[in-house]
Write a structure and sequence with these properties.
This protein has helices spanning 17-31, 54-84, 100-128, 144-149, 165-201, 217-256, and strands spanning 203-204, 210-211. By secondary structure, the protein is an all-alpha fold. Residues 1-44 are annotated as: Disordered.
């Protein structure tokens, strides 16, 4: 009696060293990118929003705007009180040493630069942690000036990507330059309205200047200036980063397709 032995066909094991190496490489490549095609460095970016969501409205027009207005008003009022309270030389609109017109110019410039730099770090952090989504419904600009202004053709322009002291200097300078450009847009109307308001409440002198004797007009003016600039300028600074990151994420995703 002949017993036929069944032949069991065995496939080559998939756990060969070569296959294991390929699997490891595939895993590394899949981990190196997140859903938006951006290097996974701990970031948790949301998908760019195709409309102005409630989260974005609260972030831009309430949290950033209101916080900046309150902080700017408090700082401006405190500095003005320390500067102008009980001044023997008096407080004037144009005459030094206590010229409110010069103070207005310096305050506007300083507030724009400081607020811009703070917003760059705060908003980028909020976007990176997924607390708010970037904007994705605006068309990415093709013109050279706007692409330069929004740093769209320069790599590693997120704060957490900047490495080395020279790159930090370049990063800070690039943002200071852009904040000054926005300041130049705001300055003419803000300065004009400020001078008009101060001439209305000041006392005109024979030499064509205005002074503010025994009043809190300078302090109140600086407080109002901080509120106005904080509530109107800060949303634009916040939008700058939110829109820019949306364009960067969408461009990165397209490059991975």
């Amino acid at each position: 009696m002949t017993v036929a032995a069944d032949t069991v066909a065995t496939e080559p094991s998939s756990n060969t060293p070569q296959n294991k190496e390929e699997e490891i490489n595939t895993d590394i490549q899949s981990q190196a990118q997140d859903d938006n095609g951006v290097k996974n460095d701990g970031s948790n970016y949301r998908k760019p929003a195709e409309y102005l969501t409630t989260r974005l409205k609260v972030k831009i027009f309430i949290i950033d705007s209101l916080t900046s207005a309150l902080i700017g008003a408090a700082i401006n009022f405190g500095i003005a009180y320390a500067t102008y309270n009980n001044q023997a030389a008096g407080v004037h609109l144009f005459s030094f040493p206590n010229a409110l017109a010069a103070d207005c110019s310096f305050t506007l410039l300083a507030q724009f630069i400081i607020t811009w730099l703070v917003e760059v770090f705060v908003v980028n952090n909020d976007l990176r942690r997924g607390w708010v989504e970037p904007i994705g419904f605006l068309r990415e600009p093709k013109g050279k000036f706007l692409r330069w202004y929004f740093l769209l053709d320069r790599e590693n322009q997120m704060p957490h990507q900047v490495k080395g002291w020279w790159n930090w200097i370049r990063f800070i300078w690039s943002n200071v330059l852009r904040s000054v450009m926005l300041f130049l847009v705001f300055f003419p109307p803000a300065f004009g309205v400020s001078i008009g308001a101060l001439t209305a409440v000041g006392t005109k002198t024979p030499d064509g200047d205005w002074n503010f004797p025994n009043t809190y007009a300078p302090q109140i003016y600086k407080l109002i200036l901080g509120i106005v600039i904080g509530s109107t300028g800060t949303p634009l600074m916040s939008l700058y980063t939110i829109v820019r990151v949306g364009w960067v994420l969408k461009a990165s995703k397209r490059s991975q397709e």
